[in-house]
Amino acid sequence: MKHFKTLSSFIEYMELPLPEHPMFSVYAAHDDSVLPCPKESSPPITNDCYSISLKKVIKGDLNYGRTTYDFTNGALIFIAPRQVLQWDSSVLFEQKGFSINFHEDFLKGTELATQIKKYSFFSYSVNESLHLSPKEEKQIESIVQNIEIEYQNNQDEFSKDIIISQLSTLLKYANRFYERQFLNRKELSNDLLERFNYELSNYFESGELSEKGIPSIEQIASSLSVSQRYLSDTLKKETGKTSTEHLQLHLIDKAKDILLQPHKTISEVAYELGFEYPHYFSRLFKKKEGISPSKYIEKYKMN
């Protein structure tokens, strides 16, 4: 399964114009202009980016994880990093709407980095898109227009904060609109990936990581009432990554937030994440991200 680590590589694969920013892009159709079409078809792919799109679909289905994404004209679609996408030539888009794509690292060091993980509409368990009323669509499009204006301007030290603020506002409105859409329906999900992520998030947020160390896959599988092999095989089939790889991704994601906190040494970060030896943490981080923790701090604290 092909995986794209950078926004630029994903955008290039989608045959869209390269982004103005290495970790953020927005495309919107105005008046007589049209939204660039994505690739006509694609085998299963994953990437490290978030996507928020207003898609007007004429026909066809988009496979999202192991389900078919239910969306129609004037619907918002939310896709999180490392979730499997696949579509074929039967999908036909009307060339209107907008598409916002940003690398998960674009949010690092911001409050939105934590908030965005709490929005259930980025989850596999929600296989319905957000169907907007005409009034709601206008509200969302006005926010996207503000984002696009800032994106197209000569970017300065304030640009990222302004874009992040507008993204946060967009997601809050989307959350309100989803509550309206699903007011009389209870969400039920037996999806193993969802429960696995929930289990890890609870463990990380409870403080057990620094107290008890990194949980074993056997421990997580036991808490989910499945075998270790079944857990890994199921996650591999659904996402292209094993349970160990998912655990490492959670650790690296948590590490990025902590590394950007002031007055934290790399050793302190490693111990806080449950690593017995700091050099094990540094080695894993560099393997997954391509740069050392210290280089990561230098790179993103300048933004």
Could you please describe the fold and organization of this structure?
The protein is an alpha+beta fold. It has twelve helices and ten strands. A hairpin with a 2-residue loop joins strand 5 and strand 6 (67-69). The longest helix has 23 residues, at 159-181. Residues 184-190 have low confidence and may be disordered.
Summarize the structure.
This is Helix-turn-helix transcriptional regulator. The chain is α+β, with helices and mostly antiparallel strands.
Individual helix count: 12
Which percent range fits the helix content? 40-55%
Rg for CA atoms:
20 Å
Beta-strand content bin: 15-25%
pLDDT under 50 segments (min length 5)?
184-190
Query: What's the helix-strand series?
Result: EHEEEEEEEEHEHHHHHHHHHH
Q: How would a crystallographer describe the biggest sheet?
A: 5 strands, mixed
Q: Could you say what the CATH architecture of the largest domain is?
A: Sandwich
Q: CATH class of the largest domain, please?
A: Mainly Beta
The coarse overall form would be globular
* Average residue pLDDT: 82
Strand order of the largest sheet: 1-3-8-5-6
User: Which fold name corresponds to the CATH topology of the largest domain?
Assistant: Jelly Rolls
Q: Report the structural category.
A: alpha+beta
Distance between the terminal alpha carbons, to the nearest Å? 32 Å
Total count of strands: 10
Overall structural domain count: 2
Keywords: DNA-binding, Transcription, Transcription regulation
Protein name: Helix-turn-helix transcriptional regulator
InterPro entries: Homeodomain-like_sf, HTH_AraC, Tscrpt_reg_AraC-type_HTH
Domain HTH araC/xylS-type: 198-299
